[in-house]
Design goal:
7-stranded mixed β-sheet; 3 helices; 19% helix
Length: 176
């Protein structure tokens, strides 16, 4: 799974990791009354990397957590979803609006493989100082360059160049 190869999501080890994450998410999502430092310490229990000053407002949802890497001063607003079957990396100072969904999980295009219950993942990389507007969806395997802007509600289906602004469904570059 972590290598991006086909895997069976019902495998015992995968199910155990997801069960542990569900327990952790229940604790994290009940942490609204905690200080920022206490909440960041709770994030560090499960996430792969939590940079200094990173903030994730609960409720938050993910598959595993340990594949998520947050740089310093990253901000995720309420109700974000990250399907992290492989690495999801979010660079320094990036701000992510409420209800944003980041999908590293993917499914075979071949229906026979889907019927077998196989899945795979493709890493998502979001650069530094990116702004992702509320309700945006970022699909598997994409890279969003530094200083890019993703408009609210956009569905990002292709890589986004550094410094670009994209909007819409599918997201397209805006005219300067």
């Amino acid at each position: 799974m972590l290598a991006g190869e086909l895997y069976r999501p019902g495998a015992a080890e995968i199910q155990a990791d997801q069960a542990a994450t569900k327990v952790w998410l229940a604790r994290y999502n009940a942490s609204l009354g905690l200080s920022g430092d206490a909440r960041r310490a709770l994030l560090a229990e499960r996430l792969g990397t939590v940079g200094r000053g990173a903030v994730v407002r609960p409720p938050f949802h993910c598959d595993y957590g340990f594949n998520i890497h947050l740089g310093p001063d990253v901000f995720l607003n309420y109700n974000c979803v990250i399907l992290d079957v492989v690495a999801v990396t979010i660079g320094e100072g990036t701000q992510i609006g409420p209800a944003v969904q980041i999908y590293a999980a993917d499914h075979p295009r071949d229906s026979a493989l889907r019927r077998e219950g196989l899945e795979f993942g493709r890493p998502v990389r979001i650069g530094r100082h990116v702004w992702v507007g509320g309700g945006a969806i970022i699909l598997p395997g994409l890279t969003i360059g530094d200083d890019a802007v993703i408009g609210a509600g956009s569905v990002v289906t292709r890589d986004v160049a550094a410094g670009s602004t994209v909007v819409g469904n599918p997201a397209r570059a805006t005219n300067p």
